[in-house]
User: Fold L-fuconate dehydratase from Saccharopolyspora erythraea.
Amino acid sequence: MGAEITSLRTHDVRFPTSRDLDGSDAMNADPDYSAAYVVIGTDAGLEGHGFAFTIGRGNDVQTAAIRALEPYVVGLALDEALADLGGVWKRMVHDSQLRWLGPEKGVMHMAVSAVVNALWDLRAKREGKPVWKLLADLTPEQIVELVDFRYLTDALTPGEALEILRRAEPGRARREAELRATGYPAYTTSPGWLGYDDDKLRGLCEQAVADGFGQIKLKVGGDLDDDIRRLRIAREAVGPGVRIAVDANQRWDVGTAIDWVRALAEFDPWWVEEPTSPDDVLGHATIARAIAPVRVATGEHVQNRVVFKQMLQAGSLSYLQLDAARVAGVNENVAILLLAAKFGVPVCPHAGGVGLCELVQHLSMFDYVAVSGSKEDRVIEYVDHLHEHFADPVVVRDGHYVAPTAPGFGAAMLPRTLADHAYPDGPVWATSENGSGA
Amino acid sequence: MGAEITSLRTHDVRFPTSRDLDGSDAMNADPDYSAAYVVIGTDAGLEGHGFAFTIGRGNDVQTAAIRALEPYVVGLALDEALADLGGVWKRMVHDSQLRWLGPEKGVMHMAVSAVVNALWDLRAKREGKPVWKLLADLTPEQIVELVDFRYLTDALTPGEALEILRRAEPGRARREAELRATGYPAYTTSPGWLGYDDDKLRGLCEQAVADGFGQIKLKVGGDLDDDIRRLRIAREAVGPGVRIAVDANQRWDVGTAIDWVRALAEFDPWWVEEPTSPDDVLGHATIARAIAPVRVATGEHVQNRVVFKQMLQAGSLSYLQLDAARVAGVNENVAILLLAAKFGVPVCPHAGGVGLCELVQHLSMFDYVAVSGSKEDRVIEYVDHLHEHFADPVVVRDGHYVAPTAPGFGAAMLPRTLADHAYPDGPVWATSENGSGA
Assistant:
């Protein structure tokens, strides 16, 4: 008998980030960064770790959704399951009863994400590789098998995907060596939270330049006069050569977005991120046409590949910001990378939160080695908090993510973190006056 | 001190409908119709009832999501809350932490739906009216206050909504009298489940005509040859004068949908429902252009008003099939009715499942009296099972829904049903071999 998957355990883990206004923006005034965390156990002495990222309240609901997926993994033969993650993905996502809860969106889809990513973590550990390298070593045919092309074929067929991957194949070894030598460019969001005062903003902008970042990001959308003042400070601090992205976090209606971005144009914003509802494909396209040459970036709340497909078809975005843990994990993100490559749109992933940097770097590095084959005009978001809770935290040096070498996906939190930040009974919360309850 | 909302209780209620293949279609092979059911208690001797509809597995996750909303209602002053359901809605939907779990989609949004609808049930009982009449007695200004126009203003402004409602105001009394006299047209889906054999199909088609229905619906999308045979049987049974809608339940990609519907064209299908992913605004528009004069209908899985807005903007549908319990309850459906009226698209609600007929009739009747002012080309879906579990079941007579007169929203299940069908410990499930677990 071969090894089996024997358990699925969950943890409701929350960090009291709202106390310092880290992560504060126009829509998320007081986030408590949280993880609905999952550990998949085996009788082979290996564990897979994954999580859905939330910002506090509701993390218990998210955790319950992950538990509902237990029957889809516990009891599977380990090697067979890991060799057919495309099949495991489809059985979970298309379960004839569970899909009613989405389909393929929201809490239930993020739960699939956590489980799928944990399975990839497990597979990468079993093969002794980081996930980016594991993916980049697959053949084009194996990569295509990971993807569910349902609802995509009017924009991308399996044959077209194969062609994209084959075109990138000859340069894989050269790009891998280059990636290991120089890393992958990052930009930093750390200076720009809405809750920071002007002095803190100025200091962090100067620090970002000193740290080697070529792009920073500021939160906007609360008050136009404040945004103008803060953008002026930031532009003065970083100079004309550093890109400043702005991020409205879905704050505006279509017309407001257009007016607001035009009022900020004098500060040369590189992109405007999430100008309106993440569901509004047509609204984003209208905004994109109206604010050019300022570009639209979006994706951290885009629910699945079907919405990304339409955003690419409609010209809704110039930068596609996939998230490692909102769509249904690695498999769906491979589909999204292929869609972006088909349409020639650069992917600049969303990160930050807790653990998202750790995960998403693998997807961008895989994209560089085996899909788009390019780092041009591409950056991964970086936020410099909560990394100390991870067993293999990201390393960012001179404005670049260093390619990880540890086997796995980087999702594993330290045991002490799981204990200390357990909600509501861990010591961080049990002694706190401001819990994350409503 | 005035009355308060004092409790929020939930029930996981499931019906073993998969045993008889009632409800079987191309995507939902074996549904166990279920309700994540909520009872909102007060110290005024009144209760409000609501639910989210699911089809089995995951109903526990849905129930947990409803419980997460307890802090938003328990402790509210009853009359103030009921007088400001627009405000209560916004506070729940836009909670700065919970919205991360959607935003406004999937499990968390359906949970809001259950709670909001329970509050409307409570308000209607307190005012001694059925919900349709309660809504139809509000002034245009009061109706506009129920709606959150965020993300809608590029298609519908509060001023335009007011204009639509004022235009309908003079005819309200006449239409109400007419509605009470003749009811609202229904169509029936009962003949057409995929799991039924040809004889059962033929018999139920003939029965539908005898019962006075002018439209029936058949599930399609499993196998083209089967669909052609079944449509031929149905067309022969009902004759040329009865409309036959077909429903693919999201089975197809865009290209397949176009080919398949063209292959069925000889049987004169009235509309094709859910031809592809409910998220695919542009895909639906492509299909609609290609299959005309066959019409596209969709909506039961459309997640919120932002997606409906785009479907109207893009010409994705000819019939808008809102669902009473998927978007965030009455308030969001008022927004959707107003959007449909603005674009001149008839609303033909989704129903069936369990309790959806009971709820949605109120929305169509309100639409007729106070919004669109028309029943032309409009029908409410009707499926004839599980009504016996409700305290105030719908009455359908001669192919028409009879306007309900009992105070409330019709969502209240019988206490015996809540006990017998409790999952997993109620007698219906405890004695069963095929539970609804995965």
Summary: The two ends of chain B are 49 Å apart (CA to CA).
